[in-house]
Write a structure and sequence with these properties.
Order of helices and strands: EHHHEEEEEHHEEEEH
Largest sheet: 4 strands, mixed
Distance between the termini: 27 Å
CATH superfamily of the largest domain: 4'-phosphopantetheinyl transferase domain
Number of domains: 2
Structural class: alpha+beta
Helix content: 25-40%
Mean pLDDT: 92
Strand content: 15-25%
Oligomer: single chain
Radius of gyration: 18 Å
Number of strands: 10
CATH architecture of the largest domain: Alpha-Beta Complex
CATH topology of the largest domain: Ribosomal Protein L22, Chain A
Length: about 220
């Protein structure tokens, strides 16, 4: 089963979150969070880890303190744990997905004004034609972008895989003979979000659950 948790940042809660929860994490992560110049970036990073802990708590309390390591392509994973996860954030939202069935990726983007021509080098001709034919080019572009980003995150090799090197047709694509399936997730009308699964589409996807400060306090017993 795939779980999806998301939350919004809050300047009002920032100092509380840092004071209450940051010390629970390894020194290197604490330094990373404290090094951000903007409170928004610091909180997005911290909330991503807190959402992960929330999801692990739901699955098994023994998972909560599992250490995180990184692959050679900088993809984070849990040591000695079957749960796969991925985190993404944009604007004021951070989202975390967890799965025990397969490698997973997620990407969220806020709908902003962009020039599609600036991204043509990342698109195939077919993709570009589809986006330009849509009435809402902006929404179509961010649907395309979040699909592609979610797939390369599920693949685990990140931007070493050129976005133009594969196409998603009917919510499916193949990279190096491995199949990936994508699904759109509705969180906020001003954002676009997709999750991607490696090898198989998880049919047991829980509805996205928004987590507020009270939920964190209750679930993490802090």
């Amino acid at each position: 089963m795939t779980q999806i948790f998301y939350t919004y940042i809050s300047e009002e809660n920032h100092q509380y979150l840092v004071k209450k929860y940051l010390n629970d994490f390894p020194d290197d992560f604490q330094k990373k969070v404290l090094a951000y110049k903007r409170w928004q970036d610091a909180q997005l990073s911290l909330l991503g880890r807190l959402l992960l802990r929330t999801g692990l708590h739901n699955k098994n309390k023994n998972y909560i303190n599992k250490a995180i390591s990184y692959t050679g392509y900088k993809k984070p994973f849990l040591i000695d744990c079957s749960v796969k996860f991925n985190i993404s954030h944009a604007g004021e939202i951070v989202v975390c997905v967890l799965s025990e069935s397969t490698d997973i990726g997620v990407d969220i983007e806020i709908l902003t004004d962009i020039s599609i021509e600036d991204y043509e080098s990342h698109m195939t001709k077919r993709e570009l034609d589809i986006i330009k034919k849509e009435v809402d080019n902006k929404a179509a572009f961010f649907d395309y972008w979040t699909q592609k980003e979610a797939v390369i995150k599920a693949n685990g090799k990140g931007l070493s895989i050129p976005l133009k090197s594969f196409e998603i047709i009917d919510n499916k694509t193949v990279i190096d003979k491995e199949s990936f399936f994508v699904k759109k997730i509705h969180l906020d009308q001003n954002y676009r979000c997709h999750i991607a699964f490696k090898n198989t589409l998880d049919l047991k996807i829980q509805n996205p659950k928004i987590i507020n400060l009270y939920d964190l306090q209750r679930l993490l017993h802090k």
